[in-house]
């Protein structure tokens, strides 16, 4: 039977957030504080210098503020809603994912899409405010804006798969909180959320070029601020697309293996 | 659609690593792990007819949940086969999902942060249930389970009883012909338990759903099931009606009577033994494997003796199942 209405499962996480106004207030506060702190920090760092790591002050501040806003796209509090894969494995409720006519991988994808669209609303709202108050610079041209949007879309796609791999780990190691924390830290560090990768040593930049993380955020933000010129955009976007394909194939294989691990919840 | 369940020689074997004791043992296990096969379910066969409620019973770890997981398509059997409403569940998981509903004890399938009604709406979309049909079924379930008093409450704020009622409704909203209930009333108070039983009875009798129920609550079995399947150590020990099980494991009734003539000679009817004789008071019990049921014994005693008072003590189903579990464990 055709799945005509199943896409509406995408509303799960946004609905959960909308039914928890205190959580939304907390998000607003946290986002505001983070943006102000990051803006102040990078302006302070550039007080005594003109250009560092190929970025001037405005580029660096714009990069850092946009990184904070973009991190909202997948930073919803699923733990409170008992809706992380780890919790579903722990409580045994993961079995229901396998008892519905919507395959678990499609349900997961729809749920993530809903999260990312909801997060996008926050990010766009924050971007509009930051643009209005001059905390970020606008893109330098329509071409930059267009390339940035395409790169950001691919970056979010890569990020979806990276997060999926972390969640799929839960099927194989029930207690993986520590691994998750390490991997999340690595993801944020290597994606350039904490600081633009241009500030890291050469060996670090070379190493991260072989990993998918920089494709999630560093590439689109570097395109936005002009650290990666438009002439290099095609190559960078091709690399992002390659990561999407590679991770799609890998996660598809892991889903098949994961289905055999559902029994791990016992009972 | 026929809601029958057919199980033939169903077997599921798990391979686990044996951990040797002590530090040296742990190291040896690490270098040279010893793998052993454990049969969680072994050669189990039974049928459930459409519109029948079957209780799948057994002590903890008997293999009940593993059996249900194979019938719901979550697990693939090592050997044997199963068909649920004509579908092999582990081969056609998605098609099977449309035919079945399931509740696993206190594990909720509802979304913790959403009001119950929103969870129902998401399930409606996932199962592609037409809106009018969904509304009609919700109304029906509300009348039976009193859902509307809490369905606008977020799941995290529901009591256990409210949550299980919501889960039952959620499992049946897409109108499945077959329902699997794995200890659905565990931890619930008697009032809610009775409400759930009433709901299940209604769904079996009025809607013709096939229900496979596992429970440790013998009152539930007595009120709902006509037939039970008993498994232990993964093997099927017994498949029969409650009456057959009582006859096999529960012949512990006693008939107590006060005779009108305290000096009368007491020769018990066939199949009945005289357990005590104290003046006019006599106590009879079953004698051998062909002993009559307690009601037959009562009739036989009244017909044979002139009595001024008579009463019966019958082992309840819990005692019967205890005896069955003990014997099953001994046989295994």
TrEMBL record, chain A:
Claim: Transmembrane helix is one of the keywords in the record: yes
- Specify the superkingdom: Bacteria
Note whether Glycoprotein occurs among the keywords.
no
InterPro entries linked to this entry: ABC-2_transporter-like
List keywords of the entry alphabetically.
Membrane, Transmembrane, Transmembrane helix
Question: Where exactly are the transmembrane stretches of this chain?
Answer: 117-136, 142-166, 178-197, 237-255
What is this protein identified as? ABC transporter permease
TrEMBL record, chain B:
Q: Which InterPro entries match?
A: AAA+_ATPase, ABC_transporter-like_ATP-bd, ABC_transporter_ATP-binding, P-loop_NTPase
As one GO molecular function, the record gives: ATP binding
Transport listed as a keyword: yes
Alphabetical UniProt keywords? Antibiotic resistance, ATP-binding, Nucleotide-binding, Transport
Q: Where located?
A: Cell membrane
Q: Which GO terms describe its cellular component?
A: plasma membrane
What is the protein's name according to its record? ABC transporter ATP-binding protein
């Amino acid at each position: 039977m055709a799945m005509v209405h199943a896409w509406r499962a995408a509303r799960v996480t946004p609905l959960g957030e909308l039914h928890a106004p205190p959580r939304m207030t907390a998000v607003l506060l946290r986002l505001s504080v983070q943006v102000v702190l990051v803006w102040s920090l990078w302006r302070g760092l550039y007080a005594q210098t003109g250009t560092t790591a190929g970025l001037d002050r405005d580029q660096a501040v714009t990069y850092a503020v946009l990184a904070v806003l973009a991190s909202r796209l997948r930073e919803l509090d699923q733990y409170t809603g008992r809706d992380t894969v780890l919790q579903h494995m722990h409580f045994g409720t993961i079995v229901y994912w396998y008892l519905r006519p919507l395959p678990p991988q499609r349900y997961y994808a729809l749920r993530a899409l809903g999260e990312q669209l909801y997060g996008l609303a926050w990010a766009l709202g924050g971007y509009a405010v930051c643009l209005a108050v001059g905390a970020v610079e606008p893109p330098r041209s329509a071409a930059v804006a267009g390339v940035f949007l395409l790169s950001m879309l691919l970056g979010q796609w890569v990020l979806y798969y990276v997060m999926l791999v972390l969640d799929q780990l839960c099927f194989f190691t029930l207690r993986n909180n520590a691994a998750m924390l390490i991997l999340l830290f690595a993801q944020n560090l290597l994606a350039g959320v904490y600081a633009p990768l241009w500030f890291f040593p050469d060996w670090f930049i070379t190493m991260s070029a072989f990993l998918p993380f920089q494709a999630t955020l560093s590439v689109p933000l570097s395109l936005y601020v002009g650290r990666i010129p438009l002439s290099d955009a095609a190559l960078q976007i091709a690399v992002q697309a390659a990561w999407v394909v590679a991770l799609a194939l890998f996660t598809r294989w892991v889903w098949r293996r994961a289905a055999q691990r559902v029994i791990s919840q016992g009972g | 659609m026929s809601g029958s369940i057919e199980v033939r020689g169903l077997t599921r074997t798990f391979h686990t690593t044996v951990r040797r004791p002590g530090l040296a043992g742990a190291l040896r296990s690490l270098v040279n792990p010893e793998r052993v096969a454990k049969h969680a379910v072994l050669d189990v066969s039974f049928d459930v007819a459409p519109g029948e409620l079957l209780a799948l019973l057994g002590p903890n770890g008997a293999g009940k949940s593993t059996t249900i997981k194979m019938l719901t398509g979550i697990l693939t059997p090592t050997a044997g086969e199963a068909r649920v409403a004509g579908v092999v569940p582990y081969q056609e998981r998605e098609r099977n999902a449309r035919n079945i509903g399931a509740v696993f004890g206190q594990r909720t399938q509802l979304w913790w942060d959403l009001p119950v009604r929103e969870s129902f709406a998401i399930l409606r979309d996932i199962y592609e249930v037409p809106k009018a049909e969904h509304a009609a079924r919700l109304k029906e379930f509300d009348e039976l389970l009193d859902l509307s008093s809490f369905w606008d409450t977020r799941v995290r704020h529901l009591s256990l009883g409210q949550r299980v009622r919501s889960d039952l409704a959620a499992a049946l909203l897409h109108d499945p012909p077959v329902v699997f209930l794995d200890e659905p009333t565990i931890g619930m108070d008697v009032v809610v338990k009775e409400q759930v039983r009433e709901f299940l009875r209604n769904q079996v009798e009025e809607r013709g759903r096939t229900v496979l129920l596992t429970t440790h609550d013998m009152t539930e079995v007595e009120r709902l099931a006509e037939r039970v399947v008993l498994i232990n150590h993964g093997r099927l020990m017994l498949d029969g009606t409650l009456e057959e099980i009582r006859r096999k494991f529960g012949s512990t009734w006693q008939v107590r009577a006060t005779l009108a003539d305290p000096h009368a000679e007491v020769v018990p009817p066939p199949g009945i033994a005289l357990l005590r004789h104290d003046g006019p008071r006599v106590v009879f019990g079953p004698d051998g494997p062909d002993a009559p049921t307690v009601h037959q014994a009562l009739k036989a005693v009244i017909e044979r003796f002139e009595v001024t008072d008579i009463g019966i003590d019958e082992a309840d189903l819990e005692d019967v199942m205890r005896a069955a579990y003990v014997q099953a464990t001994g046989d295994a």
